[in-house]
Write a structure and sequence with these properties.
2 strands; mainly alpha
Length: 105
């Protein structure tokens, strides 16, 4: 597993790439109906997430916290709750890291 600093750095880079791709697709979508490059860029971001999930040992099918945080919890902005002993809101990357550590204890 990565240490917290490296994990947070990786997640921030993924989020930045995802947001930049979304902006690019929105901008170019004004001129083109079908933006194939979005599929390619989306696959690259997906691959980055998959590598990070392996590095963090977050590969259990039913309990994938990184995907949950990014997609279901919208990078923490939804404030969804999760946990093992006691559920609590997961707003930040620090909260997510604690949840990942808790998953392996």
């Amino acid at each position: 597993m990565l240490n917290k600093k490296d994990f947070i750095t990786c997640m921030r880079k993924i989020k930045k790439s995802q947001r930049e791709l979304e902006k690019f697709v929105n901008d170019i979508g004004k001129y083109f109906d079908n933006v194939y490059i979005f599929d390619v860029g989306d696959q690259l971001i997906y691959n980055q997430i998959e590598i990070l999930k392996i590095a963090m040992n977050d590969t259990i099918e039913d309990q994938n916290w990184i995907d949950w945080f990014i997609y279901d919890n919208d990078w923490g902005s939804n404030g969804l709750e999760a946990g093992y002993d006691k559920e609590k809101p997961v707003f930040t990357l620090d909260d997510l890291y604690k949840l990942l550590i808790e998953a392996h204890n």
